[in-house]
Specification:
The protein is of the alpha/beta class. The protein is built from twelve helices and 16 strands. The strands form four sheets. The chain has a seven-stranded mixed sheet with strand order 2-7-6-1-5-3-4, with helices on both faces. A hairpin with a 6-residue loop joins strand 10 and strand 11 (364-370). Residues 1-22 form the signal peptide. This is Putative secreted protein (Por secretion system target).
Length: 432
C-alpha cells in the first residue's frame, strides 16, 4: 500500500489536470518574473503582499534547490534552458562559451512547436541581453526565441515595470520574461541578510513593482480568454555581500507558479546535492521529486505547449532537458522505493480557504486567508490538543496574512485550527 502522502500527491495533481482541461479553450501564456538575489528567509520576513497573494493562490515552494554554480549567469541559464551547466556550459557571469545553440532558452524550444509565438524579455543585467555578445547594440538575443530584448538596466526597476506594461498591452504577446536586479545590488552593497534594512527595503520595493505588473496583466481586455501562468522566482541567495558558493543560504531558494489553471499547493523536498560539492554529490533519485532550478523552464514549456501536439517536454529526446514540470501528472512518482514522495498539501477544498507558508518551516511562517470577513479565530495546538497560541484576527481584505513565530517550541508536528462563521478547518504545521 502506498503512503498516504504519495496518494494525496497523485490525487491533487490529477485534480490539477482536470482544472487544466477546463482551460483548453483558453490560449496558454507565460509571465516569468525574475528577482535577483532574494534569500528565502528574507522574503519570508519582508512585507510583500503581492508575492504573498500569489503564494496564497498558487503552487509554491521554499525548498527549490540549486545544484549548480550560484553565480547569476549560471543560475539564470539553468532556469531559462531547463538544463544544468554540463549542457549549457555557463559557469560564471562572463558567458565564455555558452552552448545555447544546442540548449536554448525555453521560448526557442516552444517556437519549435508553435513558431508564431511572440516572446519578449526585459532585463536589467547586460550579459543577459545577449550572452554571445554583451555589446550587441541591436538588442536581440541570439538562439533564445525572444522576438525582442529590452535592456532597462541603467534605468532602474521602474523602467522595467514601465516596459512590461507596454508589452502586456499587446494582445499578441505570449511569453514575457522580466528581470529585477536591485535586490541583488542591495545585497552586494550592504549584505544579503534579513537583518539588513537596505536589503529588505529593496525586496519590498520590488514587490510593489510586481503588483503594478500583475495589475496590468489582469487589466488585459483579453485576460478572461487567456490562461496565464505566472512564474516568480530568484536565481540564488547570498552570504555576507556575495554569492557563488555552496552554502544553504545561497543554494536554498524559492519559486511561485500561479494562474487560473494552477492548483493551490505547497511543494517541499530534501536537498538533492550539488554538482560542485564532493561531500554532497547530486542524488539523481531525489532530483526526480524535489524542486530544483531547471524545473522552471520545463514547467513553463509544459504550460505554453498545453493543447498542442508537441508532447511532453520532459521526455522529448531531442531536447534532453534536465528539469521537470510541476503541472503534469506523469511527473508524479509511483514507486516509493526509488522515488521518495514530495510533501504537497491541498488547500483548494478546505472548508475555510487558507494556506500556511512555508510548511514545513523553522517556526517562522505566515498563514494567508482568502476572501473572509469578520473575526478569524486561530489556534496553534499540539497533536494532543494543548493550545500554545491563540489569535483573533479581523479579516477585512481580499487576502489576510497573519505572521507566526513558533521558534520557542520544540521541533515536530503541530496543528493550526481555524474557526470562522461557525466553520472549523485544521491543518498540519511541521517545525523542523
Amino acid at each position: 500500500m502506498k503512503p498516504f502522502a504519495l496518494l494525496l500527491t497523485g490525487a491533487l495533481l490529477f485534480g490539477a489536470t482536470a482544472a487544466v482541461q477546463a482551460q483548453t479553450t483558453k490560449k496558454p501564456k507565460v509571465l516569468f518574473i525574475g528577482i535577483d538575489g532574494v534569500r528565502s528567509d528574507a522574503l519570508l520576513q519582508a512585507n510583500t503582499p503581492n508575492i504573498d497573494t500569489l503564494m496564497a493562490h498558487g503552487l509554491y515552494t521554499y525548498d527549490s534547490w540549486h545544484c549548480g554554480a550560484t553565480s547569476s549567469g549560471a543560475s539564470w541559464s539553468s532556469m531559462m534552458t531547463g538544463v544544468w551547466e554540463a549542457k549549457h556550459h555557463v559557469t560564471n557571469n562572463n558567458y565564455p562559451n555558452p552552448n545555447f545553440l544546442n540548449y536554448p532558452y525555453f521560448p526557442k524550444r516552444a517556437k519549435e512547436c508553435l513558431p508564431n509565438l511572440k516572446a519578449v524579455q526585459i532585463i536589467t543585467w547586460d550579459p543577459m541581453n545577449d550572452p554571445t555578445n554583451s555589446n550587441n547594440s541591436a538588442g536581440f538575443v541570439f538562439n533564445s526565441g525572444f522576438n525582442q530584448s529590452i535592456d532597462a538596466g541603467t534605468h532602474g526597476q521602474g523602467a522595467v515595470t514601465a516596459a512590461a506594461k507596454i508589452q502586456l498591452a499587446d494582445p499578441n504577446l505570449d511569453i514575457l520574461f522580466i528581470h529585477y536586479d536591485e535586490t541583488d545590488a542591495a545585497g552586494h552593497s550592504s549584505g544579503f541578510n534579513p537583518a539588513n534594512a537596505q536589503y529588505m527595503n529593496a525586496i519590498q520595493d520590488v514587490d510593489a513593482q510586481v503588483g503594478q505588473v500583475l495589475q496590468k496583466l489582469y487589466q488585459r481586455p483579453t485576460y478572461s480568454q487567456e490562461d496565464w501562468l505566472i512564474l516568480l522566482t530568484t536565481d540564488h541567495g547570498g552570504i555576507g555581500t556575495t554569492h557563488g558558493g555552496q552554502s544553504n543560504t545561497e543554494r536554498h531558494i524559492w519559486w511561485v507558479a500561479a494562474g487560473p489553471s494552477v492548483p493551490h499547493l505547497q511543494i517541499t523536498g530534501p536537498d538533492p546535492g550539488s554538482y560542485y560539492m564532493p561531500t554532497n554529490p547530486v542524488d539523481t533519485t531525489l532530483l526526480k521529486s524535489t524542486p530544483v532550478l531547471t524545473d522552471i523552464a520545463v514547467t513553463a514549456l509544459a504550460h505554453i505547449l498545453k493543447g498542442s501536439n508537441c508532447g511532453n517536454p520532459e521526455t522529448n529526446p531531442a531536447w534532453n532537458l534536465d528539469g521537470k514540470s510541476w503541472l503534469m501528472t506523469d511527473t508524479v512518482p509511483t514507486d516509493t522505493s526509488t522515488h521518495p514522495p514530495t510533501y504537497i498539501e491541498d488547500v483548494n477544498n478546505a472548508t475555510i480557504q487558507f494556506g500556511i507558508f512555508p510548511n514545513p518551516n523553522n517556526g517562522v511562517f505566515k498563514a494567508a486567508f482568502h476572501k473572509l470577513q469578520g473575526i478569524i479565530d486561530i489556534k496553534v495546538i499540539s497533536m494532543t490538543g494543548r493550545v500554545f497560541i491563540e489569535k483573533k484576527e479581523k479579516a477585512i481584505q481580499e487576502l489576510t496574512v497573519v505572521p507566526f513565530d513558533l521558534t520557542s517550541l520544540p521541533k515536530g508536528i503541530y496543528l493550526m485550527q481555524v474557526e470562522h462563521d461557525g466553520r472549523r478547518t485544521t491543518r498540519k504545521i511541521v517545525l523542523r
